[in-house]
Write a structure and sequence with these properties.
By secondary structure, the chain is α/β, with parallel strands linked by helices. Helix content is 39%, strand content 17%.
């Protein structure tokens, strides 16, 4: 399961500083260094300029200062640093031991700074949206689009990719046609009494967190998008499965008002 990051993060109070060499997907170390150099360099300069580039307000300059100190900041497990609606619903820390073991090998998190992470990877809290362009680096999404292919393919192995990313982070890596039969993208739709369908951000994030949690607790490992749809229905979700495309198969999870 490939998750988006969260904009909000819980800054560790204590913990050893960042060690890029200790992170999973070590082939991304050089690309991670490039993002860190660009982000830290920006935030060590004029705070107002950095805030404007990062899209934060004058009242959030503490986020700029935190970015400037990323290399020395305390770290914690990624699944404790990322917070917000999806991660609260997922509640990895509250899973039983078997489900936590599954999460360690079945969950990956997209990151603007680190590309992709496993839940146990130790990282600091940072502020960098995937839609930002950094001086000397360019588009964050474009940077990772050039580097993530091999790492995500390695993480996927021979299994099914359940893509729960939002649009911004889906741009970091798009599955090649060769993997399409093993890619399921999940969309959450709110259905009004009159049948009108819409995407509601809060419910989309919350439902994706609950869905990921349910799959980890259940332990099922479907090999195709169609079988994933069957598993989700068995778990009580209303799911529509679209036809296959060169980018994978979309599953719509319907929430009726």
């Amino acid at each position: 399961m490939l998750l988006p990051p969260s904009e909000g993060k819980t800054a560790p109070r204590r913990g050893r500083p960042l060690d890029l060499g200790s992170l999973s997907s070590p082939g991304l170390t050089g690309a991670r260094e490039e993002v860190l150099d660009a982000l830290v360099g920006l935030c060590e300069g004029d705070p107002a300029t950095a805030a404007r580039v990062l899209g934060v307000t004058a009242g959030q300059l503490s986020l700029v200062h935190a970015n400037a100190d990323l290399r020395l900041a305390a770290t914690a497990r990624a699944d404790r640093v990322y917070s917000g609606v999806l991660y609260d619903a997922l509640d990895l820390a509250g899973l039983d031991a078997a489900a936590r073991r599954r999460a360690s090998s079945r969950v990956a998190i997209t990151s603007s700074v680190f590309g992709v992470l496993r839940p146990a990877d130790r990282v600091p809290a940072y502020r960098l949206s995937g839609s930002v362009g950094l001086p000397g680096l360019g588009s964050v999404a474009g940077h990772w689009r050039s580097h993530l292919g091999g790492a995500v393919t390695d993480l996927l192995g021979g299994g099914l990719l359940v893509d729960l990313r939002s649009g911004t982070y889906a741009a970091f890596w798009r599955p090649p046609a060769a993997l399409a039969g093993r890619v399921a993208t999940v969309r959450v739709l709110s259905v009004a009494p009159d049948g009108e369908r819409s995407v509601v951000s809060h419910f989309n994030k919350h439902t994706k967190g609950l869905l990921a949690r349910a799959l980890l607790v259940d332990g099922a490992a479907p090999r195709t998008p169609a079988l994933l749809g069957d598993v989700l229905r068995d778990l009580g979700w209303e799911v529509e499965t679209a036809g296959p495309t060169p980018a994978g198969t979309r599953l719509d999870v319907l929430l009726r008002a």
